[in-house]
Amino acid sequence: MAHTMHAPAGALAVKQVHKNFSGIRVLNGVSFNVSPGTITALVGSNGAGKSTLINIMAGVFPADQGQVYVNGLDVTAKSMHERVAVGFMRTFQHPRVFHSFSVARSIRLASTGPSDERLFPSVCRALGIGSGPDKGGLSELDVPALSSIIEKWESKADNLSYGEQKLLMLAQVLATKASVLLFDELCAGLEPDLVDKVRNCMRQLSQAGKTIVFVEHNLALVKELADRVVFLHQGQIFREGPTDEVLQDAKVIELYLGH
């Protein structure tokens, strides 16, 4: 009798993911589920496999074994843009922008809606720079973290500072209306006041029903934001659970701090 394959519950699920590079095992049977509307931190020391796992989840390259599910759909064999279409979007550790594009054009380009004319007014309203007939999506969110780039709305991305280019990536993610968001060290390189605004933005996104997974080395920020922590060590999940429980684990502290 044939068995029906059921998709794991959750907004994002990783199931028994393995990855080798040149015979070196980087990920070894990684599995975890992320519930809708929650914030999960992916933590581990350098070399733990975080970057490889992120790239597999995003579709940058395939896993050797295992599956990735977004909103109950198996996206294992799907490309990056196909994963965006089903609601998954990521930022990168370092800004990736079209340097000759203005801030406005960059955000327009990020939209995956069927009509730029329909979506763009809603994005503008979400950023506090105008109005339009569309009252759905981002128009319901307040995003003060983006105020510094709004002031440079017509400026080319090349003229933005490093931190502002990171905020532009955040604006582009919001423009896609994705429901599952992956932030790769989004706050690294930002001034403290901008870190505060991004932290508040992430809370607001979660409260609005977005599901967030973020990679962060600042454990104080992890404690403030994350509902749960997935702690990676040598390509495996060493500990997973509520944030306080994981970060207070003596063995986790020893492995993360290296003493």
Distinctive features:
259 residues; alpha/beta; Rossmann fold; 10 strands; 34% helix
Describe this structure in words.
The protein is 34% helix and 23% strand. The protein folds into two domains: 160 residues, Rossmann fold; 81 residues, no CATH class. A six-stranded mixed beta sheet has the order 6-7-8-3-9-10, sandwiched between helices. It has a four-stranded antiparallel beta sheet with strand order 2-1-4-5, covered by helices on one side. The chain is α/β, with parallel strands linked by helices. The longest helix is centred in the C-terminal third of the chain and has 16 residues. About 9% of the residues have low confidence. Helix 3 runs parallel beside helix 6.
Layout of helices and strands:
Blueprint (H helix, E strand, L loop, with lengths): L11 E10 L2 E11 L4 E5 L6 H9 L6 E6 L2 E2 L5 H6 L2 E3 L12 H8 L5 H11 L20 H4 L11 H14 L4 E5 L7 H16 L3 E5 L3 H7 L2 E6 L2 E7 H5 L2 H8 L2
Parallel strand pairs: 3-8, 3-9, 6-7, 7-8
Antiparallel strand pairs: 1-2, 1-4, 4-5, 9-10
Helix pairs in contact: 3-6
Assembly category? single chain
DSSP strand tally: 10
CATH class of the largest domain: Alpha Beta
The share of residues in extended strands comes to: 15-25%
Structural class: alpha/beta
Low-confidence segments = 114-119, 125-142
Concise summary:
This protein has 259 residues and is an alpha/beta fold. The protein is 34% helix and 23% strand.
